[in-house]
Amino acid sequence: MRYLITRLLQSIIVIFGVSIVAFGMTYLTGDPTEVILGAGADRMTVQEINVFRVKMGFDRPWYVQYFDFVSKALQGNFGYSFIRHKPAYEVIVERLPATIQLGLFALVISILLPIPLGVISATKPNTIIDYIVTFIALIGQSVPSFWLGILLILFFGVYLKWLPISGSGSWQQLIMPGITLAAFSIARNMRLTRSSMLDFFQKDFVRTARSKGIPENRVVYVHVLRNSMLPIVTAIGLQMGYLLGGSVITETIFGWPGVGREILAAIGSHDFYVVQAGVIMFALIFTIVNLLVDLVYVWVDPRIRYE
Fold first, then answer.
1. What is the number of domains present in the chain?
2. What CATH number is associated with residue 226?
3. pTM for the model
4. Which among 9, 84, 174, 264 is least buried, having the fewest CB atoms inside 10 angstroms?
């Protein structure tokens, strides 16, 4: 319980820091009053602009505005999108299911594919299978996601016409953006599984288990794989936040109607209320996931004790 309280306090500090950055976005594009009014400011007098500035509260000291921003954010009020003409929170929530769907699909394939391949590579070191798996992992970590996405569109969408190149709604439309988003995580998990298992194969308790005549499959999956899962679980926990928050480029390339694409569009139109809501939403999800991963450590390795 003490550890849980400590981690919760740390999470609150992280969210507090993100809220400061998100609030600062209001002034990154200049005077927020002129940003909201846009071209309409040219048709208004200075007095009318000042009246609007006072109405929106931009004339107050920054710390007063920040306190007001935080107090409203705690109630789910992130302001009103002057592009979508609806509350910014609703704009993000409407797009969140599509991002979660894409992120979960990428997470599943980044677990189901690399861990078995990493196990095979670790149990057959310095063989042709090991070399192929290592080569694939190296390519996956080297290729930029945007370039991989374009190649998949050209090959499977334009040339072979096997898969749709954009949009959402069917499982076929999920394949290419999911692979693009998960490519780096697949490669990293492959190499991490292989290196972690190879390290545990050299431990004394593994040699003892083999000397007792324990079947090799039990040695591999019970003694070696489970003990080597701690760094893998850490990587998977971190990549859950990345797959949700790092989907901006992938969603844009494939026209996926998610939060990342919406945030990018909001940046282009200076709709900073939507950007603020999206950034804080991603930070909250990432922080919760990291907290859950820390709690999973105890299940993976009961030897861990938190002081």
1. 1
2. 1.10.3720.10
3. 0.77
4. 9
